[in-house]
């Protein structure tokens, strides 16, 4: 069998909760196989292997270096804490292994650029693990918002990403409670999706300016627990509103409002069901005579997919890796998307630091 047709052999460094979904996706996809894992300790890695029913062929390594150095590993998934992304992202690229990085990209744009430069210099594929972008529902929504006769010019994009986590966790947890490692808190963990959704809806054009709103809550250690931001597109006056919080129950809402129609879904990051997803589409809505009701109800659009968005993500990543083996260059689209998301996230952080004033991009 030609090398470019063989399954992409993954290593995983960091057996955190975040690693479970991608591990499952790697095992489910015929395009990938799991070769090696490591964690903070060999015992943790063994426990992860048992809990996730990993095949006995998966190598349990004593250190992250052992995974990165393994000549039989083609690509590495890196779900370590964000403060370690730059170190391990560069290390993976320097070993000429392809890099699937947990989001957010890094602690800031400068650190992310070190990773992206190493990937470019070594000719390896980079992708961050923003899974919802790979779901066929996302492509269907893009089809509708790109048609000027349907949604039309977009005036408003709103996202809400929340998940309740007790405050005590951020006072004591390591590394989540340490600002040097995880200062971004909810902004990095949840706001990344909202910022990415606004950019996605605007074809990844950057906003003219970013302003954090003065509803910021931080832990005693400085971790952002809740915040909101406005992204403004001056050219066509589109406004993006992003809210993220660890202080509210689970929500994943996205609303896109145009001059002719609108889209709404309550599960844009992770669909309610694994093998189908839906959204509401409303077109040319107005009040009926004497304002006694509406002329239309939202239409429910369902998109069925054979496999989960996580599997689709690793299969797209594997397809790009196989293409590189066959002589194609890495696809820079994913690095560009990650970099733009990081740039806007950094701008929100800067706005927070300077008293919620406007930051021009």
Automatic annotation (TrEMBL):
MF terms in GO: nucleotide binding
Coiled-coil zones: none
InterPro entries the record matches: Gfo/Idh/MocA-like_OxRdtase_N, NAD(P)-bd_dom_sf
Sequence ranges assigned to domain Gfo/Idh/MocA-like oxidoreductase N-terminal in this UniProt record: 8-127
Pfam families: GFO_IDH_MocA
Protein name, per record: Gfo/Idh/MocA-like oxidoreductase N-terminal domain-containing protein
Source species: Linum tenue
């Amino acid at each position: 069998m030609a090398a470019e047709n063989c399954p992409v052999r993954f290593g995983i460094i960091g057996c955190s909760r975040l690693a479970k979904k991608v591990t499952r996706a790697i095992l489910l996809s015929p395009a990938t196989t799991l070769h090696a894992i490591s964690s903070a300790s060999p015992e943790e890695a063994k426990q992860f292997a048992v809990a996730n029913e990993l095949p006995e062929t998966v190598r349990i390594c004593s250190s992250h270096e052992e995974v990165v150095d393994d000549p039989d590993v083609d690509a590495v998934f890196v779900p370590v804490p964000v403060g370690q992304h730059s170190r391990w992202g560069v290390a993976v690229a320097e070993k000429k292994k392809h890099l699937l990085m947990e989001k957010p990209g890094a602690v800031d744009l400068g650190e992310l650029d070190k990773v992206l430069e190493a990937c470019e210099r070594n000719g390896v594929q980079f992708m961050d693990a923003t899974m919802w972008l790979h779901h066929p529902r996302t492509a269907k929504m893009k089809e509708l918002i790109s048609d000027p006769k349907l949604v039309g010019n977009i005036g408003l994009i709103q996202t809400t990403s929340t998940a309740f986590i007790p405050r005590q966790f951020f006072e004591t947890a390591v590394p989540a409670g340490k600002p040097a490692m995880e200062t971004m808190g909810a902004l990095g963990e949840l706001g990344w999706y909202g910022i990415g959704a606004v950019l996605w809806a605007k074809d990844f054009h950057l906003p003219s300016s970013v302003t954090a709103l003065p509803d910021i809550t931080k832990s005693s250690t400085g971790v952002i627990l809740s915040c909101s931001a406005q992204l403004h597109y001056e050219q066509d006056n589109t406004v993006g509103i992003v809210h993220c919080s660890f202080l509210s129950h689970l929500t994943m809402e996205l609303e896109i409002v145009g001059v002719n129609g609108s889209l709404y879904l309550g599960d844009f990051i992770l669909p309610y069901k694994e093998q189908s997803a839906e959204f509401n589409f409303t077109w040319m809505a107005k009040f009926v005579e004497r304002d006694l009701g509406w002329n239309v109800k939202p239409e429910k659009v369902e998109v069925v997919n054979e496999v989960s968005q996580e599997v689709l993500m690793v299969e797209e990543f594997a397809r790009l890796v196989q293409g590189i083996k066959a002589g194609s260059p890495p696809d820079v689209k994913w690095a560009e998307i990650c970099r733009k998301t990081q740039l806007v996230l950094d701008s929100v952080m800067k706005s927070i630091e300077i008293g919620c004033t406007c930051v021009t991009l």
